[in-house]
Design brief:
It comes from Planococcus versutus. By secondary structure, the protein is an alpha/beta fold. The chain has one domain: Rossmann fold (3-Layer(aba) Sandwich), CATH 3.40.50.
């Protein structure tokens, strides 16, 4: 496995490939990290994927890793949706760049943990070219989640630095990426979910509810949608979940 630290325009990333294949066209996965994390924290996913013959791109999200701007935890949390939407926008650039460099076989797999899983869900709504996805303790109910976050901040005594009109604009924008509101956009593409039932950071129930709704459109291809739930797990992906996700990509990007 070869790991290269690179800068693609303004995006710092790790570019991981099987040995001797850094310039070959390969099945490729872009994998997004979680909130307050960084690209290096998902190298175990990249290792497993590279062992299966895949290329992996691990980018740093806005205000994270090498893109840190010395914001405190509260400031970064208040800009959560800006970070998510920026990652979705930057995925289009990464997609174009990978094709321009002739590095991809077929189309991209996209996945991520926590905030990265949330990013993946929004990306599935706007990019029909995503070939397969893995959502690790993520969520697609953008509007509901944003409203819950705002209520939580206000209940802690934080005054949100946005007007009522700005809140409404944000929710209108997030609705464009909301999986609950745009379930038809999944179009029976392979998607794997992992979620711990004891997760208090990204609640289990809304994602499981969405999965049950999505299953209806996958009735003719039930093998293309899987929800792996772990009863005692919280907000941390198990080794089994990680291995299942990497096997999922290897299977559905090599077909």
């Amino acid at each position: 496995m070869k790991v290269e630290k690179q800068m693609w325009e303004h995006i710092p990333l790790l570019h991981i490939t099987p040995d001797q294949h850094e310039h070959s066209a390969l099945p490729t996965v872009v994998f997004f990290h979680g909130h307050m994390s960084a690209k290096e924290h998902n190298l175990h996913y990249a290792y497993q994927l590279a062992q299966r013959g895949l290329r992996v791109i691990l980018p740093d999200a806005l205000f994270h890793g090498e893109r840190s701007e010395a914001l405190d935890t509260v400031e970064i949390s208040l800009r959560f949706w800006e970070i998510v939407l920026t990652s979705i926008e930057e995925l289009a650039f990464l997609h174009a760049e990978l094709h321009k460099r002739d590095l991809v076989v077929g189309e991209l797999g996209v996945g991520g943990t926590s905030m990265g899983g949330i990013t993946t869900m929004g990306a599935m709504i706007v990019y029909p070219w995503i070939q397969a996805a893995a959502v690790m303790m993520g969520a697609g109910n953008y509007v509901e989640l944003a409203q819950a976050q705002m209520t939580q901040y206000e209940s802690r005594g934080f005054e949100l630095p946005v007007s009522k009109k700005e809140k409404e604009h944000m929710l209108t924008t997030l609705a464009l990426f909301d999986s609950v509101q745009h379930q038809d956009k999944f179009n029976k593409r392979p998607i794997y979910f992992w979620h711990g039932e004891q997760d208090t950071t990204v609640p289990f129930e809304p994602t499981y509810r969405l999965y049950k709704d999505l299953k209806k459109q996958y009735e003719s291809v039930p093998e293309k949608i899987v929800f792996h739930r772990e009863r005692e797990a919280g907000h941390a992906v198990s080794r089994t979940g990680m291995l299942n996700a990497t096997q999922w990509f290897a299977k559905h990007l090599s077909e």
